[in-house]
Amino acid sequence: MQPVTIRRILYGLTLALGICQCVIAGFSAPFVLFDDFQTNHYDRIFLSLACAFAGATWIWAAVLLAYNDRPQVIHPLTKAKAHFISFIVLDLIWLALGIMVLSQLPDVCRYQFDDQGYNSSSCALTATTGGVGLLLSALSALTAFFIYRTSRLYGGVSTADLASSADGVDNIRHKIVRSSAIDWRIACYSLILIFGIGMDIVGPLDIVINSERHFMTQFSSVATAFGLITWIWASVLLAYNERPRSSNILTRVSAHFYSVVAFGAVWLVMGIMFASETKYECNFSEFSDGLASTWCAFSGTLTALAFSLSLLSGIAAALIYDTKKAGGWKSNVAQSDIIELYEEHVDST
């Protein structure tokens, strides 16, 4: 099996475990939060950190996976050094987080109180979060070691190209030097896609469980529908982001610019609408049968997602507008980002 294939498997496992950890830690935090008998609040902090870093882990693993097999591209992320350092950092952080979360089990796994089942649930979820954290640490260490070993014979991890030297690819006839603008657009479009999917997860849940005190149901329904449009269209823009030789209308600067401007405007309005509902969803003075904190959390999450989508769309619009200066509105969005195409002959003997 080729090294590039083994790396693809290891990166894919890291990505999958990162998503699982994000979900598990995300569910663990509310169970621990609702345990009124907790005297130690570190577990809540550690679980929140695990959830946040899990999101960063799988997103970064997806980025590294995208640059795992690009022998004809000159970019910092095609270097073995970038991948090696990334997985060393993931290894150390997940080792620390796993130990921190598991150290809270004696406090979380207490059954001497009648807590309506929260204790057993929070105990199981916390243990799972800690275990997956240590598993991610071990997987990251294994991946870093594999990158180090496969790069050692081709100049070492500090100088080797990940998919050309380490995989033994000979006679690379040309290299494409790209502008960082393509990568910035990829990052913005990918985050818009992810946050759009997040809106389609949180929105329907809020439709079911919100307080129905004002217009939250209507706003969540509209956001869910537009969230679907957002992430589908973002995936289309992502697919046509790097086609410098295509004449398709979806590769034009104007198509990308007006799309993200529309996203930015609509999500800004949606964010303001959700923010206006916070005073109703976070009203703890009215009877809520203990659900006010849940309503408030969902309202805050939807508000944050909407404003984040608006901000990301604004950043993408600014990047695309800067690209437009090189060739006008009808030019290819990636045409000016290909800096150089040159021959590089490698002796295979």
From TrEMBL:
Taxonomic superkingdom: Eukaryota
Parts of the chain that traverse the membrane: 9-33, 45-67, 87-105, 125-148, 182-202, 222-241, 253-275, 295-321
Keyword flag Transmembrane helix: yes
Coiled-coil annotated residue ranges, if any: none
Keyword Membrane appears in the UniProt entry: yes
Assigned keywords, A-Z: Membrane, Transmembrane, Transmembrane helix
Protein's recorded name: Uncharacterized protein
